[in-house]
Amino acid sequence: MSHQRVAIVTGAARGIGEAIARRLSRDGLAVAVIDLDENSAVSAAELINAEGGRAIGLAADVAVEATVEKAVAEIVERVGAPTVLVNNAGILRDNLLFKMSTTEWDSVIDVHLRGAFLMTRAVQTHMVEARFGRIVNLSSSSALGNRGQANYAAAKAGLQGFTKTLALELGPFGITANAIAPGFIATAMTEATAERIGTTFEELKAKGAASIPVRRVGEPDDVAAAASFFIREEASFISGQVLYVAGGPLN
């Protein structure tokens, strides 16, 4: 099994992260599922193994340097050197600017930006050694601006600049870096948003679908398909790109 490529997907216990992890397993990669909650990460990995894949689940807070280093070392030991990284871990702490606390700002920036930086820095060594690497960062259509999400929008826009810089720095080593910016995707996270703004999830989805050209909201598998494309061998000439998976043009 040593020739099998190893992928790390952060925030992969549910939603978009889980869909990406399962898709990469079906594509033939071994997968390390990282999540804040160990039980959830292990459960997600067990589902992949039950489907005939090869996965492990482990807990890590991507914003904590020592934890990230330890997690990557454990992955190397248990499944092999990772050459595919999907930085998907993310949180929401929505609030209008005048009500947003410093903690709400810091925690969102830490998980998305610091987390992607720490994970990528820890994994790039293995990619450089292999002269092969695929980095996929999860941005969002909110990068274009979204009311009540100054923290999230800044983090997701920041990930686009981070992605383009990785493409420049790591390209000579056979490593590509691309970002996916999903629009409205039906997940537990968007369900929580419906609750927060006082509407039902069905109403939120219906309203969202009405404003999307393809007339439906996205599913996690829509994002997983884009990740699968960026990660395949044939995508080696595509780097530094931001792909909006949003059912239509956004800008």
The CATH topology of the largest domain is: Rossmann fold
User: What count of domains describes the coordinates?
Assistant: 2
* Percent range of helical residues: 40-55%
Number of beta-strand segments: 7
Tell me the CATH superfamily of the largest domain: NAD(P)-binding Rossmann-like Domain
Q: What is the correct CATH architecture of the largest domain?
A: 3-Layer(aba) Sandwich
Structural class: alpha/beta
| CATH C-level of the largest domain | Alpha Beta
| Rounded radius of gyration (Å) | 17 Å
Distance between the termini: 44 Å
Percent of residues in beta strands: 15-25%
Which features does this protein show?
251 residues; alpha/beta; 2 domains; 7-stranded parallel beta sheet; 8 helices; 7 strands; 48% helix; globular
Descriptive overview:
- There is one protein chain.
- The protein is of the alpha/beta class.
- It has 2 domains: 6-183 and 223-244, NAD(P)-binding Rossmann-like Domain (Rossmann fold, 3-Layer(aba) Sandwich), CATH 3.40.50; 185-217, no CATH class.
- The chain has helices at residues 15-26, 38-50, 65-78, 102-130, 150-170, 188-196, 201-210, 220-231, and strands at residues 6-10, 30-35, 55-59, 82-87, 133-138, 175-182, 242-245.
- The chain has a 7-stranded parallel sheet with strand order 3-2-1-4-5-6-7, sandwiched between helices.
- Strand 2 (30-35), helix 2 and strand 3 form a beta-alpha-beta unit.
- Helix 4 (102-130) packs parallel to helix 5 (150-170).
- The longest helix has 29 residues, at 102-130.
- The protein is globular, with a radius of gyration of 17 Å.
- The termini are far apart.
- The mean pLDDT is 96.
